[in-house]
Amino acid sequence: MTEREILDAAAGLRALRIGGNTTEIEDWIASMNCYLISSQLPKRNRKFAGAFVADDLAESVGSTLCQHAIEGGGGRVVAKLCGSLRDAPSAYALYKGLMSSVSQYFECRDRLRADHFRMWISFLSFVADLYANIGGGKDGELVNFVFQVFDYLLRAPILETLKIEELESLISALLSVGYDLERECPDQLSLLKDLIRDAFIDVSEPWARKMILLLLELGASGWKLPAEANEYYFQQTTN
């Protein structure tokens, strides 16, 4: 990262105003600045540059960012900020912290959905937004969460208790990342299309079937929503 990029990232982190973790975030920003300074030294003086890469701090900050995105709102802003940090000195540690936290939330999906529905919807949106900004990850862990979300919601017994907000989140996800999924993991996307087709057949609620049909049609329309679909799919879902 350049000095300008680090300054912009630092401003973005501070703008989140995450209470309780200010010192941790400031320490990580300081470590990035130290790394930048050391990397500009002559090669013979760079032997300690690695010491400034605070992986433990970065991992903790990643977890904190995920929690803020899901519980504090503003997940899209956090996801965009994470995208700007892809080239940070400790980017992989930040990613590990994000994935660890995403995994913990997903493990609690039944309780989140039942008792903290707003947070659950924030989680659904954040997973897609994060993938849109940082990609699936070298280990494919993030993109797997994208597919697991669909698998969880579009199978029994959850399928018959789906809420409009959940299907809207799935539609938004495919509008945002459908093209990338098709390019980067076509085999998994093919299985997802089969799952969506089966869900369309199995679901009993007419409004849900209509919205699941849109999930099917998005793939055929280049992952774009036709203008006329707004009225047909969304204004009529409760009829």
TrEMBL record:
Q: Name one GO molecular function term.
A: translation activator activity
> Coiled-coil stretches, from where to where?
none
InterPro entries reported in the protein's UniProt record: MIF4G-like_typ-3 (IPR003890), mRNA_TranslReg/HistoneTransl (IPR051367)
| Gene3D superfamilies linked | 1.25.40.180
Q: Which GO terms describe its biological process?
A: regulation of translational initiation
Q: Does the keyword Transferase apply?
A: no
The source's superkingdom equals: Eukaryota
Cellular component aspect of the GO annotation:
cytosol
- Ranges for domain MIF4G: 25-222
Segment forming the signal sequence: none
Could you tell me where this protein is found in the cell?
Cytoplasm
Annotated keywords: Cytoplasm, Translation regulation
Q: What name does the UniProt record give this protein?
A: MIF4G domain-containing protein
Q: Which organism is it from?
A: Ancylostoma ceylanicum
- Recall the taxonomic lineage recorded for the source organism: Eukaryota, Metazoa, Ecdysozoa, Nematoda, Chromadorea
